[in-house]
Every structure is written in structure tokens, then in C-alpha cells.
Amino acid sequence: IILENGKALVLSDKGLEAEFELALADVFDHKGNDAEADARYEELLKEFPDNTIILNAYSYALAQRNERLDDALKMSKQTIDLQPSTGSYLHTDSYVLFLKGDYESSIKYLQKAKDLIPYEAEVLEHLADAHLKAGNTGKAVSLWKDAYEITLSQELKKKIEKNDLGEIGIF
Q1: What global pTM score does this model have?
Q2: Residue 132's CB: how many other CB atoms inside 10 A?
Q3: How far apart are CA 81 and CA 32, in angstroms?
Q4: 11-64 pLDDT tens trace
Q5: How far is residue 28's CA from residue 37's CA, in Å, rounded to a whole number?
Q6: Which of 30, 108, 154, 164 is the most buried (most CB within 10 A)?
Q7: For the chain, how long is the longest CA-to-CA vector?
Q8: What are the residues whose beta carbons fall under 8 Å from the beta carbon of 30, sequence distance 6 or more?
Q9: How far apart are CA 117 and CA 137, in angstroms?
């Protein structure tokens, strides 16, 4: 009821309505109601087909579920065509490429994202993951260490310990 009341308050403003619907799509996605989330994302894209925020959110949601990766890639490429210097959009694109097994292209876009948002630990971690899949273990460990210094994540520490060949020791 509260959500419907909130929607009634923003119906007179298309921009606010789109933000509200996007927030609902994100909530449904995080709660695991994929069908409802997808329906809302798709309705939003019918009305706002070039909205990079919606395109990126939907692309990332599909990637997180490892579903419809071709659709996710198409949307992420569209965001990059519209806004080529947005680090988060490059990150989403590289994530989809990674899931599709195109590690070299993933590295290319992650490096661009890293250049734009150099202290984003998730970008560093994903760049390291892509380097590992591409066979560049030393580079992967170095990037994981950079990400670890930002987050102190135990998961990153385990990745480092598992893959560090003693070449770059901080532990």
C-alpha cells in the first residue's frame, strides 16, 4: 500500500515516475522476484529506450543472475555508445564479457573503468579475476592486493593467498 501511495504522488512527473519504477525494479531484483523486476525494467525501456541508468541496471541485474547474457551485452554496449566515459557502465560491460568467457575484452573495458574510477575495489577485483582467467596470475595477485588495501576483505585475502607465488608478498 505504501508503494502504491508513493507511486500516486509521483505520477504527475514522468522523471520521478521513472525513478520510482526503477527503484521498484531494483527491489524486486534484490528480493529474487526476477519476473517482476524484468517486467518493470522492460516497461521502463519502452518509454525511455536510451536511458543509460535503466539500461545499465537491467544489464547488471541479468549479469548477476547469469541470464540472457546476449541481451545484457546489447544493453551494456548501448550504454557505452551513449556515455563512453562512465566507469560503472564500462564495468558492467566488462562483467558481461567476463561471464561470456571473453576475458581479453573484459580486461580492456575493466582497464578503462579502472582509469576512470581507480579506487573502486570491485573494479580492481574483477580486473584481477579477468587477468587470472586470461592466465596472468602475477597481474591478478597484484590487483587483488590493491583491492585488498581498500577493503581489507577476507575473501580477497584468500584469493591472494591461494594464487600468490611469493613474488609480491604482503602477508
Answers
A1: 0.82
A2: 19
A3: 30
A4: 556 778 888 889 999 999 999 999 999 999 999 999 999 999 999 999 999 999
A5: 5
A6: 164
A7: 61
A8: none
A9: 23
